Backbone:
């Protein structure tokens, strides 16, 4: 029998954890960057950064939250500037082909509309919406990931909810 | 009596169940008599479940590529951290000598490198890999020849619980190591890695956990085998015993 590990080091936990959070992280990158190609770049850069900074991760603590926070910082510090520069100051939000139109076209259309509604929110609001309503983070955890006060999380959600509620209402009336 | 005013932020916190940030009791008391408050709550209400379910359907088209991490790490910086060093050693065959990675009891530390590499795989790493039988056979013939074996897909496809996907030649300290990748019926990646070590034959596969994954290690005919992936010890044990008995 070869040795069984009883406690993982930070590096081991980071390397073992990346695969498990990659899809969630990529979704967050999509929401931040607005398109799939940039989401691929940001997500992979974030994984690389995580491995590089693995010794900063405290083993046994919330790995996924650490990854989201690291990704947010990477986006703010480096990649967003580059994307904005290359995109002539505006990030284009992709609104096609995010959802497989295969099995149930009607459901796929509704799903696309919900996603489009969120993606049309300003970046700060849609990131907050994703963290709270998709990833299920508490206000406190979201504030920590985004490095903002809880009050700002609440303000963003209040504005976002107001817009989303209007859009959904309009869509419901149109049906 | 003057009705208490609640901010939108407080109402949203109330709707989200964030009781630390919402005056829940006050809001619920006011709702008994304040119709406009109910209207405001309605205007802030959204279908959270629909948002959650919609975004769950978005998946990356490209899976995380362990080779990308390894390559980028090598290009950009020294590799002070364990995992990328591990992957680099595994993939490029650099590092320390084989003797130095074998413990006195003969424990093959190469398994730890394989485990770290395997930990980066997700189901989406292998789901898009679909080769026909001819391609699988040609690939496996080429790959298994790298370690002096001739393995066929039929020898690997011994159970409906796993689907054989692809073969790769990797390197460990200049020695060829092959990785045979599977996807389990539960969608979990699994790999059988084989390396010529000259180790004595095992009586039975040794089942354990590595990097949080189920694993089984055995040797026969001068080769060492590591089957790793998922969390189903029984499945790993079953498959390992069959491969060992078949003297793959």
Residues:
């Amino acid at each position: 029998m070869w040795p069984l590990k009883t406690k993982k080091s930070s590096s081991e936990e980071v390397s073992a954890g990346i695969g498990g959070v990659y899809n969630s992280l990529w979704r967050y990158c999509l929401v931040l960057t607005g398109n799939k190609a940039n989401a691929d770049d940001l997500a992979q850069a974030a994984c690389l950064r995580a491995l590089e900074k693995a010794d900063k991760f405290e083993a046994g603590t919330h790995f996924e939250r650490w990854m989201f926070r690291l990704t947010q910082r990477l986006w703010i510090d480096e990649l967003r500037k580059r994307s904005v520069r290359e995109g002539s100051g505006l990030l284009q939000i992709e609104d096609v082909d995010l959802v497989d139109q295969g099995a149930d076209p009607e459901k796929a259309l509704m799903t696309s509309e919900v996603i489009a509604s969120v993606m049309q929110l300003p970046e700060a609001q849609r990131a907050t919406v994703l963290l709270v309503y998709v990833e299920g983070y508490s206000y406190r955890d979201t504030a920590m990931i985004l490095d903002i006060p809880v009050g700002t999380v609440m303000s963003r959600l209040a504005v976002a909810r107001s817009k989303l509620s209007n859009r959904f209402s309009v869509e419901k009336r149109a049906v | 009596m003057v009705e208490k005013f609640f901010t939108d932020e407080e109402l949203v916190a109330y709707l989200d169940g964030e009781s630390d940030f919402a005056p829940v009791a006050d809001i619920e008391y006011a709702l008994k008599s304040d119709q406009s408050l109910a209207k405001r709550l309605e205007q802030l209400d959204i279908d959270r479940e629909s948002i959650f379910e919609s975004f769950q359907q978005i998946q990356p088209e490209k899976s995380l590529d362990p080779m990308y991490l390894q390559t980028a790490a090598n290009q950009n910086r020294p590799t002070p951290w364990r995992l990328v060093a591990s992957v680099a050693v595994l993939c490029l065959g650099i590092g320390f000598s084989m003797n130095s990675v074998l413990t006195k009891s003969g424990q093959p530390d190469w398994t730890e490198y394989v485990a770290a590499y395997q930990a980066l795989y997700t189901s989406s790493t292998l789901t898009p890999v679909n080769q026909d039988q001819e391609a699988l056979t040609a690939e496996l013939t080429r790959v298994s020849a790298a370690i002096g074996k001739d393995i066929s897909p039929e020898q690997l496809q011994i159970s409906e619980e796993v689907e054989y996907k692809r073969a790769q030649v990797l390197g460990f300290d200049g020695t060829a190591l092959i990785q045979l990748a599977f996807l389990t019926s539960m969608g979990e990646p699994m790999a059988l890695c084989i390396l010529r070590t000259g180790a004595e034959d095992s009586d039975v596969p040794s089942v354990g956990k590595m990097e949080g994954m189920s694993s089984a290690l055995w040797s026969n005919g001068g080769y060492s085998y590591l089957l790793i992936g998922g969390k189903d010890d029984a499945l790993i044990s079953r498959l390992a015993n069959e491969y060992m008995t078949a003297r793959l």
